[in-house]
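Repro:
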Amino acid sequence: MKFFSNHKFCTAILLTAVCILLPVSAEKTKISGLYRYTLGNGLQLYVAENHAAPLVYIELAVKAGGIAQTPETTGVFHLYEHMMFEGDSRYPDGASMDRAVKDLGVTEQNATTNINVVNYFFTIPSDLLYKGLEFWSYAIREPALRTDELEAEKKVVISEIEGNMSDPGRIYSAGILSTLFPEYPWRLDPAGTPDLVRKATVDDLKVMLNKYYIPNNSALFVGGDVRHADVYEKVEKIYGSWKRGPDPWAVPNAPQLAAPFSGTEYRVMPSDQISSQTAVVSVIYRGPDAGTDQNSIYAATVFDELCDDPAGKFKAELLSCKDLQIPDADNIGEGYTPYRENGMISMTAQLRNPGENLPARAKIMAGLVSDKIIPGIIADKDAFTTRQFAQVKQTIKDYNIMRTETAEGLLSELQFWWVNTSPDFFFSYLDNLKKVRKSHIDAYLARYIVGKYPLVTVRVNPAVYEKQKQAFLDAGFVELTKDTAYWWNTEHNNTSGGAAK
């Protein structure tokens, strides 16, 4: 993959024509220096003015990727990402595109294909703003898509997929996602399967391009040493002729299962990335989806920070359990992932002496969280003090300031919420966090954890695992390997042509 990185429109024809003819004015947002425009074709433009350095960040994002896939098209967005850099109507081949981007002061084009978004971005000198906007316009709207280049890129993409299949971290992640989201696991696999990538054609890419790569499903994020009105003028000139299409999300995706299990599920992952002196146990619940339950995000965010308090009820209860042998509060974590349709809540701890009855200790931790800690927090009206609430809300505010102090940081954060919720959610985020009370957290925990079956995972050093392998099997743990973790190697494999397991 060619990238480097560290994370209503008018419906009638007459009305559409009027929308295009009327002048567009900037909507100043609640954030200082951030402006919003919507072009007549539906393209959203966000401009962040920050004149600290003569640079400009340009990102074009499309609501696509894994979330837009079917069992037959898994990996097509990933493959298309590669093909975008192999020539377009302006630059006839990949070498020409490389030279053009280097002329912009960038060593390599950046792009990622993720679960909920495909995005293209770089930072260039601000006096090259027009050329930078123009570069992505040609690449996005008029790719060459030659059959010979497609066959070459297939080999690159398949090599990536097969290489990643041996990465313990990716095996673990694939195993969690395919287990927790068994109904539509392909929506969480933007990389794709080797067989489906091998079968993809130029026509397949064009179908995807025409459906999703349209202005009313995309947004431009531009920030740095620029003037918002000037950016809009240039964007209108370059992108204004981009033809809108039918809303690809007019019929929403069928939701992932809210309760995927009829009982607690157990997985174990031998990994040489884990020290023989510790094991990592995680208790993972199906969480709120940001696309349909935005109110829970506020409670989840505050609860995450409250759980980070070393003296707080969550960590104290886990540390007090002698069976777990957790070294200290720094070895405990809790977190929620606010994704559009695949929210997860994870509670994780590192345990010492993993050679001592590890499967049973993992079950003890899961029971402690589900049956004692969370119900106890709900039952105790004084579980969190006024001071703790004030402190965590200030921490969240400070972190948000640090994360968005640059134009790129601000726009990256905005892009995440544009994809998973809405820009308006982002603009009112801190104000709504201030309103979170204990009752909101109780309701969140009661809805998503109390009485729900979690996925319990153990990551352990292979040598330690081998000595307890039978104990794990007897305790109901399924081992995660490259043959069991990937959805297309298991019960859904009849689509991708893999061998049944």
